[in-house]
Amino acid sequence: YKMTTILTSDNVVFNVHRDLVEDAKLLKQFNEDIGNDCVHLPNVDAGTFLQMQHFFTYGKLPDYDSVKRVIVAADYVQYDKLVDHCAEYIATKIIKGWPPERIRYYFADL
């Protein structure tokens, strides 16, 4: 099997099967266009990538406490399915019914 090496912002290396990252457009582009087997993700730390890898494999996140970091990382690698999943979770489980001021505060650090 063809593997892709992911290097996170905190210098942790992950070896993942290429099929797992096919939906992430940026990762796929690195593999196809550049032919690079090692992709550096300067905006994604190891903990966040572990969450993303879990989603690549199982279709859900193991821990929603860091959903804001995951949605930013998913947007960075252009993984639309994960962005949509996180956005739906935030909208239905976190901010539903909140006043606009509280929603702005929740997203202020993004």
Structural notes for this entry:
- The protein is elongated, with a radius of gyration of 15 Å.
- Helix 2 (46-58) crosses helix 3 (67-76) and helix 3 (67-76) runs antiparallel to helix 4.
- It has helices at residues 25-34, 46-58, 67-76, 80-94, 100-107, and strands spanning 3-8, 13-17, 38-41.
- The mean pLDDT is 89.
- A hairpin with a 4-residue loop joins strand 1 (3-8) and strand 2.
- The chain starts with a strand and ends with a helix.
- The protein has a three-stranded mixed beta sheet with strand order 2-1-3, covered by helices on one side.
- By secondary structure, the protein is of the alpha+beta class.
On the 0-100 scale, what is the average pLDDT? 89
Spans of at least 5 consecutive residues with low confidence: none
The helix fraction, in percent, is 40-55%
**Within the largest sheet, what's the order of strands?**
2-1-3
Counting DSSP E segments of at least 2 residues, the number of strands comes to 3
Rg value: 15 Å
Query: Largest sheet, if any?
Result: 3 strands, mixed
Order of helices and strands: EEHEHHHH
Q: Report how far apart the termini are.
A: 36 Å
